[in-house]
């Protein structure tokens, strides 16, 4: 462009900026008046004018630089124009500074005005919301009033129906009450009559029963007096006593401490430490079950854990429920237990292993693995404690247990099975007294329980032979090596074998001949000039001897002083003579029994032995004279007292079972 065009452009720009400065200056003067408009409006107008000046600032700066150029070759404006431009630049800066000052003065007022405006708008909104809520509340109350009215109407209707129903029920109840009253009066009259009759009958029965009880008490008192006078007081065997004392002083290991149940901790760390110290003193395993009441797996395994505590009493089982007390919760945090259930295993107060989860099989395996006390082992050193019972005491204990066993079994076959099982254990002990496996039996063994252990008297019979109970995870019956060598065991085994009826097990006697099938105690019938002995007379005679020790002693003394007494009685009583002729050894048995009144008295006062003594009496009595002599192979060959007692047991069982041949399940059991 030429010089003329440049001048036109400069003048146009100069005019534009001059107009903008004039306009902004006028606006700033007008806005400086406080009442001209609101602070927010004045602030907005000032910002607009300042924005206009800011947009022209660059052009103004350029024109000012050109006007200040001192190099004549580079000067664009003439002297007059330079003065105008420089004057415009000074005025531009002054007006802009004026605007900035005005803005700073108006800004606090605008902020306050904006805050007031916001508060006004917020108040308006809150008033509108409150009005809306009042409308909703009024509508709700109107709806509630309507519902209450409807409910009251429904209740009034229901009350009317209830009153009507109650009135009908009352009328029916009055009719029924009148009818029941009439029936009750009739029943009372009949009951009074029956009660009077029953009272009279009961009074009669009570008097009779009192008389019977008085007689029974007198009989028991007499029997007890006889038992005390005739009881054999066992004297201690010096050799056995010395053996027992040596076994006690031989530093034998003490029986382990037992617990048998879960100890539930509530006292936190102090209580748990006390339990760990108690187990350490006993050399026992401690198992700690960490659980919570809200934990399903914890509750499912809880009964199994309690069963383990019962079956393994030599270990201490502890339960720590973290919900039971704050101390327990703190203890679980201290032990870093983060999952439930968790099991910790302690030996000597040292944690040996952990188990997380309700794994029953693994829990049982780890208890077995870490328990330092194995209660199922037999003593591996020494002979163990001997059985201090004498042969007579052992025999009495066995007879008592057999009586209980016979009473508790449902049938003769069950009893014989139990006796044969007992024979198996005793026979194994006698055949292998030094081998541990033959001297113990697990009490929870299924075969043992089915055949012997579940019956009352079964375990007592094992104990009578010298077995002892040993507690542990699996309770056992164990007989020591010393007890297995008791000199009475062989004779007791023979006694037990003879208790089995012939049809179940044909066991030869000591002489090689099967025992007789007659009851030797029944031979007491028909003595002297007495009438034949029927069952009632036999029982009466046994009662007399049991309650009158003087009579028993006199009879024994008469037999001892007069060896021919039995023959004399037979000469005066043909029926007794026929009995002696049928059984030539009857006299020998009677003499042996009479020579030991203490043994006979004990038998007469033993209910089981008494029942065996009376067995077979029905076959004798008045019919004895017609009885045919038994075959010669059943004749007794000089039986001892033990043999006669065994024969009495066998005879009693044979008659109770009602005869018959072999039945299944009566073969001797194998070693359980």
Please explain how this structure is put together.
The protein has 672 residues and is mainly α. It is 63% helix and 6% strand. The protein has helices spanning 3-31, 39-67, 79-230, 238-248, 268-282, 296-311, 326-334, 360-370, 391-408, 412-431, 446-453, 458-464, 481-484, 489-498, 535-547, 549-561, 565-572, 574-582, 586-594, 597-604, 607-613, 641-657; strands at residues 262-265, 285-291, 316-321, 342-347, 350-356, 440-442, 468-470, 476-478. The strands form 2 sheets. The chain has a 5-stranded mixed beta sheet with strand order 1-3-2-4-5, sandwiched between helices. A 3-stranded antiparallel beta sheet has the order 6-8-7, covered by helices on one side. β2 (285-291), α6 and β3 (316-321) form a beta-alpha-beta unit. α10 packs antiparallel against α14 (489-498). The longest helix has 152 residues, at 79-230. The chain starts with a helix and ends in a 15-residue tail after the last helix.
Could you name the key traits of this structure?
5-stranded mixed β-sheet, mainly alpha, 6% strand, 22 helices, 672 residues, elongated
How many helices does DSSP assign?
22
N-to-C order of helices and strands: HHHHEHEHEHEEHHHEHHEEHHHHHHHHHH
Shape: elongated
In which range does the helix fraction lie? 55-70%
Q: Which whole number gives the mean pLDDT?
A: 77
Distance between the termini: 131 Å
Question: What's the multimeric state?
Answer: single chain
Q: Order of strands across the biggest sheet?
A: 1-3-2-4-5
Uncertain residue segments: 232-236, 244-253, 375-381, 506-533, 612-637, 652-672
The largest sheet is: 5 strands, mixed
Q: State the total count of DSSP E strands.
A: 8
């Amino acid at each position: 462009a030429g010089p003329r065009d440049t001048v036109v452009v400069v003048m146009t720009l100069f005019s534009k900026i001059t107009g903008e400065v004039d306009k902004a200056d006028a606006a700033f003067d007008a806005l400086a008046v406080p009442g001209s408009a609101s602070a927010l409006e004045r602030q907005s107008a000032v910002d607009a004018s300042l924005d206009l000046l800011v947009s022209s600032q660059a052009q103004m700066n350029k024109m000012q630089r050109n006007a200040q150029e001192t190099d004549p070759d580079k000067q664009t404006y003439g002297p007059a124009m330079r003065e105008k431009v420089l004057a415009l630049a000074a005025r531009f800066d002054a007006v802009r500074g004026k605007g900035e000052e005005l803005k700073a003065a108006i800004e606090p007022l605008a902020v306050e005005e904006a805050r007031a405006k916001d508060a006004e708008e917020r108040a308006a909104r809150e008033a509108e919301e409150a009005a809306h809520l009042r409308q909703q509340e009024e509508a709700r109350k109107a709806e509630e009033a309507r519902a209450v009215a409807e409910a009251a109407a429904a209740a009034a209707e229901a009350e009317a129906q209830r009153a009507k129903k109650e009135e009908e029920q009352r009328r029916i109840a009055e009719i029924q009450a009148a009818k029941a009253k009439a029936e009750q009066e009739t029943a009372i009259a009949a009951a009074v009559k029956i009660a009077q009759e029953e009272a009279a009958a009961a009074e009669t029965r009570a008097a009779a029963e009192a008389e019977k009880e008085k007689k029974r008490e007198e009989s028991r008192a007499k029997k007890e007096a006889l038992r005390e006078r005739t009881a054999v007081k066992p004297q201690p065997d010096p050799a056995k006593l010395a053996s027992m004392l040596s076994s006690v002083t031989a530093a034998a290991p003490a029986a382990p401490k037992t617990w048998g149940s879960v100890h539930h901790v509530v006292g936190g760390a102090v209580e748990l430490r006390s339990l760990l110290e108690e187990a350490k003193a006993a050399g026992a395993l401690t198992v700690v079950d960490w659980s919570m009441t809200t934990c399903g797996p914890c509750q499912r395994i809880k009964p199994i854990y309690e069963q383990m505590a019962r079956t393994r009493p030599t270990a201490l089982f502890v339960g720590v429920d973290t919900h039971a007390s704050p101390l327990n919760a703190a203890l679980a945090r201290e032990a870093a237990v983060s999952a439930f259930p968790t099991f910790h295993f302690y030996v000597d107060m040292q944690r040996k292993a952990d188990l997380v989860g309700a794994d029953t099989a693994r829990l049982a395996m780890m208890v077995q693995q870490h328990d330092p006390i194995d209660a199922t082992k037999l003593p591996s050193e020494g002979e163990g404690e001997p059985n201090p019972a004498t042969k007579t005491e052992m025999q009495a204990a066995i007879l008592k247990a057999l009586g209980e066993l016979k009473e508790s079994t449902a049938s003769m076959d069950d009893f014989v099975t139990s006796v044969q099982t007992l024979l198996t254990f005793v026979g194994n002990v006698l055949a292998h007294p030094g081998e541990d496996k033959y001297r113990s039996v697990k009490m929870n063994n299924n075969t043992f329980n089915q055949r012997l252990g579940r019956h009352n008297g079964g375990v007592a019979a094992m104990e009578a032979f010298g077995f002892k109970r040993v507690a542990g995870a699996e309770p056992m019956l164990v007989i020591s090596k010393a007890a297995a060598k008791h000199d009475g065991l062989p004779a007791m085994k023979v006694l037990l074998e003879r208790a089995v009826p012939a049809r179940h097990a044909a066991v030869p006697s000591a002489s090689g001949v099967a025992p007789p099938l007659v009851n030797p105690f029944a031979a007491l019938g028909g003595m002297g000039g007495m009438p034949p002995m029927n069952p009632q007379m036999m029982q009466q005679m046994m009662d007399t001897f049991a309650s009158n020790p003087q009579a028993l002693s006199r009879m024994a003394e008469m037999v001892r002083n007069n060896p021919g007494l039995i023959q004399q009685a037979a000469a005066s009583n043909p029926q007794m003579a026929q009995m002696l002729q049928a059984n030539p050894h009857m006299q020998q048995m009677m003499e042996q029994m009479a020579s030991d009144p203490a043994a006979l008295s004990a038998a007469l006062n033993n209910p089981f032995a008494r029942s065996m003594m009376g067995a077979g009496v029905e076959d004798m009595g008045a019919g004895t004279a017609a009885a045919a002599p038994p075959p010669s192979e059943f004749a007794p060959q000089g039986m001892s007292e033990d043999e006669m007692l065994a024969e009495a047991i066998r005879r009693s069982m044979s008659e109770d079972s009602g005869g018959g041949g072999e039945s299944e399940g009566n073969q001797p059991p194998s070693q359980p």
